[in-house]
Amino acid sequence: MKLLKLTSLLSLALLFGCADKEVAVPDVPPSQLYADAQQALQGGSWSTAIERLEALDSRYPFGAYTEQVQLDLIYAYYKNDDLALGLATIERFSRLNPTHPRSDWVLYMRGLTHMAQDRNFLHDVLNVNRDDRDPEPVRAAFSDFDRLLERYPNSAYAKDAQFRMVALKNRLANYDLATADFYLRREAWVAAINRSQELQKTYPNTEAARKSLEIQKEAYQQLGMDEQVKRTEELMALNPQ
Predict the structure, then answer these.
(1) Of the candidates 53, 88, 140, 211, which lies 20 to 30 Å from 21 by C-alpha distance?
(2) CA atoms of 161 and 144, how far apart (whole Å)
(3) Residues 6+ apart with CB under 8 A from 146
């Protein structure tokens, strides 16, 4: 009986919660809804802007504001850290508007949204090293920005995308370095060497590539491969700190 009452209370709470959300978005003309959404966007009230824009999108899916509403939602979702919704909206918009004049911006926002997926607020606050975290969102962001530069080399967002790719490359290189170091600590000497060499080949002009030479040298020493140790030392001399 208590379980039944609890279930009923939860159902009522959800029902009233949904009702409150509907009440929060008044039944006004689309022009007024859009004006309210723009005011919220300009004031940084992302949740309010999203409510208005989502109401516009659902109530008037083929209205005069359809495309701009989608673009505004992409930005508002990103700013509000609703990253999964942002990516879903980007995919939808790109599918329906493959030749839109702002396609470069949409691709740029896709990169930013993927980058944000690699961010963790608590890690930032606590200054936790994140190099060993799965870098899949970073790879996706790098691919997005690379595609932007290839398709829209004269885009207003190309320069910033190129700048961000440098940071992303360093993030990916640091992940490989952390992996090589993990193998070294586990005494998996061959795996440490292979990952170090892969890093040096893929990300040659990074600090991580230079540091990987130290891991490579130690692994060769543990294997008693003196000639390879000497070659690695020569590479280290060519790439000083």
Answers:
(1) 88
(2) 9
(3) 165
The CA-atom distances, in angstroms, between 130 and each of 123, 140, 185 are 8, 17, 18
Under a CB-based contact definition with an 8 Å cutoff, are residues 63 and 76 in contact? Answer: no
- At 13-66, the pLDDT tens digits run 444 444 444 446 667 888 999 999 999 999 999 999 999 999 999 998 888 899
SS3 percent helix, strand, coil of the chain, rounded to 5, is 80, 0, 20
Fold category of 22-80 in CATH: Methane Monooxygenase Hydroxylase; Chain G, domain 1 (1.20.58)
Within 13 Å of residue 41, how many CA atoms lie on the same side as its CB?
Answer: 19
Do 171 and 132 form a contact (C-beta atoms < 8 A)? no
Residue with the bigger pLDDT between 172 and 131: it is 172
Cα–Cα nearest to 208, from 237, 233, 172: 172
Sorted by where each begins, the domain ranges of the chain are 22-80
- Region of 88 on the Ramachandran plot (φ > 0 left; ψ -120 to 50 alpha; else beta): alpha
